[in-house]
């Protein structure tokens, strides 16, 4: 499904503020996931009612459309809809794991918009730099990763988040005396949509014998 087809599918329910299909940064191939932001909450709700469980043209199975967060929050919504996935496409590491789970169980992770406009400054969209938005650092979107093992290092974070998009920086917080990971770290990604997708896919992901907790960094998160 192309971005144009994605917009055609959702535009019947209201005015689309922005849309995007996530693609692999290396191959340019669609990851089978797209974002739609509507102008009004009611439009997003109608899209969910109309498209949830439906099979778009060209798809082999129905999609599931829902909000990731409570739709009563006072902000416009961002719909993240799973598009048709080719059974021959494979992803490395956790991304492959999640793609397989999506395809087999017809699941769909949703991202929830913090503002009406996209928090990225491309295609003429409004920049949110300077606003008090969780995770936004001015140079990217900071993600808090919790429940890492003591032996975890920066390479683990690169491997986890790299497949989802551009990663600016990773940092594992270490114990001063032992130099072992204290159980958490931070990842800064350039693009909000890619960061949201990484969070939706990796939160609850099992790494070894640990289940990761992944979210946008807030003021309450551990400071690095």
UniProtKB/TrEMBL annotation:
GO cellular component assignments: cytoplasm; dendrite; growth cone; perikaryon; ribonucleoprotein complex
Molecular function via GO: RNA binding
Residues in RRM domain copies: 1-70, 141-219
InterPro entries, A to Z: ELAD_HU_SF, HuD_RRM3, Hud_Sxl_RNA, Nucleotide-bd_a/b_plait_sf, RBD_domain_sf, RRM_dom
Keywords: Cell projection, Cytoplasm, Repeat, RNA-binding
CDD domains in UniProt: RRM2_Hu (cd12652), RRM3_HuD (cd12656)
Compartments, as annotated in UniProt: Cell projection, Axon; Cell projection, Dendrite; Cell projection, Growth cone; Cytoplasm
Domain of life of the organism encoding this protein: Eukaryota
Family as reported in the entry's similarity comment: Belongs to the RRM elav family.
Protein name, per record: ELAV-like protein
Higher taxonomy: Eukaryota, Metazoa, Chordata, Craniata, Vertebrata
């Amino acid at each position: 499904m192309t971005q144009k087809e994605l917009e055609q599918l959702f535009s019947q329910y209201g005015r689309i503020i922005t849309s995007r299909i996530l693609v692999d940064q290396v191959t340019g191939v669609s990851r089978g996931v797209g974002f739609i932001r509507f102008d009004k909450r009611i439009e997003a709700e109608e899209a969910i009612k109309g498209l949830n469980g439906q099979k778009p043209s060209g798809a082999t199975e129905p999609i599931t459309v829902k909000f990731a967060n409570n739709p009563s929050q006072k902000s416009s919504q961002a719909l993240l809809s799973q598009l048709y996935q080719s059974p021959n496409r494979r992803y490395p590491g956790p991304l492959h794991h999640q793609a397989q789970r999506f395809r087999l169980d017809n699941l769909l992770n949703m991202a929830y918009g913090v503002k009406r406009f996209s928090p990225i400054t491309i295609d003429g969209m409004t920049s949110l730099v300077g606003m008090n938005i969780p995770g936004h650092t001015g140079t990217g979107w900071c993600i808090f990763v919790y429940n890492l093992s003591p032996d975890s290092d920066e390479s683990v974070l690169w491997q986890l988040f790299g497949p989802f998009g551009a990663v600016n920086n990773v940092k594992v917080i270490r114990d001063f005396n032992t130099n072992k990971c204290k159980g958490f770290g931070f990842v800064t990604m350039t693009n909000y949509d890619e960061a949201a997708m990484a969070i939706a896919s990796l939160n609850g992901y099992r790494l070894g014998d640990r289940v990761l907790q992944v979210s946008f960094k807030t003021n309450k998160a551990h400071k690095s």
